[in-house]
Design goal:
Length: 267
């Protein structure tokens, strides 16, 4: 049976057919295209089934080694040029199908490589302490006015979402002048154990402006009020700024962006 192609990273330039020892040991190979070199790994049907099953917490735990492999290969690749990091467990049926997909997306990929050259992604998350959105003052009222209370709770929750989202946007606004590109990934409440995420953002920052960006971030974090908390992780590969990769790929998982991964954690 023919092995499936696990596409890990597309590098903006040729690697001259030479792989670092660490990638050789990890079983990586190069598939060359006119756009750049693609780092792949050939996998069998059992691994394909394992990766396709990684759509929940238990499934992801089962592929921890593959997640670490994916991340490490992309980091090493970034030492050799700008990188298009494929989504985790992006699978193709053959080398030729993979090459054709890259050719069909070549224009968007070239624009992307120019845009992200010498730049990294920084993930910003704004959290707020949990609050009680409504209070039942009288048990009798709760029993006799359930519909009213439900409407009141929905209204209060909606007001809080809008207020917090607006405050989160205002808080990060001064950072945009230090970024080459900016994306609001999510606003609104995302309940967690002891905090609510009210906004997640991605900034594409040139490496020559990273110090200014992080300095401004510290200033914003120190001046924040109302219980909001700011956290930032990076630098990452520019996952959030990739163009859509139009291809007929075999489904893997969609756990792709470090920003999304970070957004699932507590501040």
């Amino acid at each position: 049976m023919t092995d499936t192609i696990y596409a890990v990273a597309l590098i903006s330039r040729k690697m001259s057919g030479l792989l670092p020892d660490e990638l050789n040991k990890a079983g990586c190979e190069i598939v060359s295209t006119q756009v750049g070199d693609i780092l792949i790994r050939r996998i069998g049907p059992e691994t394909v089934a394992l990766l396709k099953a990684a759509h929940n917490a238990a499934g992801l735990r089962a592929v921890t080694d593959w997640i670490l492999f994916h991340e490490r290969v992309n980091v090493i690749a970034s030492n050799h040029g700008s990188v298009y990091p494929f989504s985790f467990a992006t699978l193709f049926s053959s080398d030729e199908v993979l090459r054709q997909a890259v050719i069909e997306n070549s224009e968007a990929l070239q624009i992307y490589f120019s845009h992200v050259k010498e730049a990294d992604e920084w993930a910003i998350k704004i959290c707020a302490p949990k609050t009680q959105d409504f209070r039942i003052d009288d048990a009798q009222n709760a029993n006799s006015g359930l519909d009213y209370l439900q409407r009141r709770r929905a209204r209060n929750a909606g007001d809080r979402v809008a207020t917090m989202a607006s405050r989160a946007e205002a808080l990060v606004s001064p950072l945009k002048s230090f970024a080459r590109d900016w994306k609001t990934l999510r606003t609104g409440l995302a309940p967690q154990t002891d905090l609510d995420v009210v906004g997640t953002f991605a900034a594409l920052v040139g490496r020559n402006q990273a110090d200014e960006f992080t300095s401004q971030l510290r200033i914003q974090a120190e001046t924040v009020s109302g219980g909001l908390q700011v956290s930032c992780t990076g630098p990452w590969l520019p996952f959030s700024f990739r163009p859509s990769f139009r291809a007929e790929v075999m489904s893997g998982t969609n756990k792709t962006s470090p920003v999304e991964c970070e957004a699932s954690k507590n501040c």
